Structure formats: C-alpha cells, structure tokens
Amino acid sequence: MLARLMKYEIKSAARLFVPLYAVLLIFALLNRFLNPFEVLEAAENFSIQIFIRSLSIGAYFFLIIAVFVVTLVIIIQRFYKNLLGDEGYLMFTLPVKPWQHITSKLLTAIIWCVLSAIVIVGSFFILFESGHIELLTFMKDSIKHTFGTTGFVVLPLLIIAQLTSGIMMMYNAMSLGQLFRKNRLLASFGMYCLLYSIQQVIYVICLLLLADTSFFSLIRTGAPTPKDINLFLGSIAIGGVILAAAHFVVVNRVLNRKLNLE
Q1: Tell me: the pLDDT tens digits for 219-252?
Q2: Residue with more model confidence, 193 or 141
Q3: Which of 32, 215, 43 has the alpha carbon at shortest distance from 130?
Q4: Domain that residue 124 falls in
Q5: Which of 78, 99, 129 lies at the terminal end of a domain, its last residue?
Q6: Is residue 162 classed as helix, strand or coil in its secondary structure?
Q7: Separation CA 175–CA 77 (nearest Å)
C-alpha cells in the first residue's frame, strides 16, 4: 500500500515538475548556444543581440529559483492539503495507517528534492561546454583530501539526514498548527519557528556534550584529520536522524488521535 501511495504522490507532483524541469533544461541548452557570458567588445553588437542574451540568461536563473520554490511549496502543499485539509476526509477513509501516509509524503518529498538538485546541476553542465571532467575530478579530489574516502559516504548521509529532519519539522509544524481552531496557517508558521528554535538549542546541547570528542577536538586541532571531521559530521547526521524520528512520532500521534479537519 505504501508503494501505491508513493506512486500516486509522484504522479500528482510530476504534472508540475516534469514540465518545469524540461523548460529549465531547454533554457540551459538555449543559453549554451547564445553564450550570454561571452564578452563582446564590438560596440555594434550591443543591441538586440545583447538584449536577447540577457533576457535568456535571466529567464534561466529565474527558472532555477522557481525549481527551489516550487519544490518547497509542493512539499508543504501535498502534506497540508491531502492530510490536514478537505482531502483528508477521503485520505483517511483509505485502509492505510497514518504512518504510511507520512512515510509516503516524506519519501516522495526527498525524491523530488534530490531530482530538483540533479536537474539544476545537470543544467549547469549543459550550459557550459567544457570543464566538466576537470570540475568533477577537482570535487572528488577535494572531498577525498578533506574527508578521506569515508567522506563519500558521510556527506550523502549527512545531506539526507538533514533533509529528512527539515521536511519532518515542517510536517510537525503543520500538524501542531491544525490543533488550533483559528488561523491555522499562522499557527503552523509559529510552530515551525518554535520547533526550529528548540532544534537549535538541542544541537548546541549535543555539541557541548561532545566537548571531549568530535566538536572540541575539531576546534583545538589546527589541522583536523579526516577522522575528526567525519566524526563531527557523523554526529550531526545522527542528531538529524534522531530529530526526524522525534518529529515523525509527534506527527503520527497527532494524525492518529488529535486530527481535527473542521
């Protein structure tokens, strides 16, 4: 049933994401041929040609911003509208437990975040003709030099853990916000600010508890070793997983016992 929920979620959001991704990649390809970054010294070239190139590159960067914004809006809208809004009456009549609804929303949100990042990076590779292999090699060598080979595992895990924690915090804020009878959107925003503040305090406390290990060893050491850095980043990743799990428990409890769709 979880797979069916995810399939439904992906198909619903794909109607917006796929055309947006396609337009972004098309504009990247268009700008590659227009070459808007080319320095034109001839005065006679500063005319309609420059205007078209400027307009094209402006639209490209606007589309990049649009991908970020749309991804965030879809993550919020799909959860709030489907589970906390009018559609909730239909969704909760399905033979599906609340935790399955939450999991499907979370996994599809992560998928779209990752896909959006891949498409944006891919558009950069389309935009610039050369230097791709050199850039990838430089990035690989930099990661290996700073984090060691373990960094190729720690960094993706850190990103996924923090992404999961951030998404679940938004879900938690919306779930707690719907407990209020009036101004639920405003209440959700207020709950998000409160949860964010609490989360930062927890991170500070955790860092202080790690004073004798990763955190302060990283500060004291003039040239921290990859082991020190990975231990520090791994601690943050673990904290993100714990916080995400805590948010998940709260959201699941609210949807199970405190849901108010009125």
Answers
A1: 555 567 777 788 878 888 888 899 999 999 999 9
A2: 193
A3: 32
A4: 1-129
A5: 129
A6: helix
A7: 13
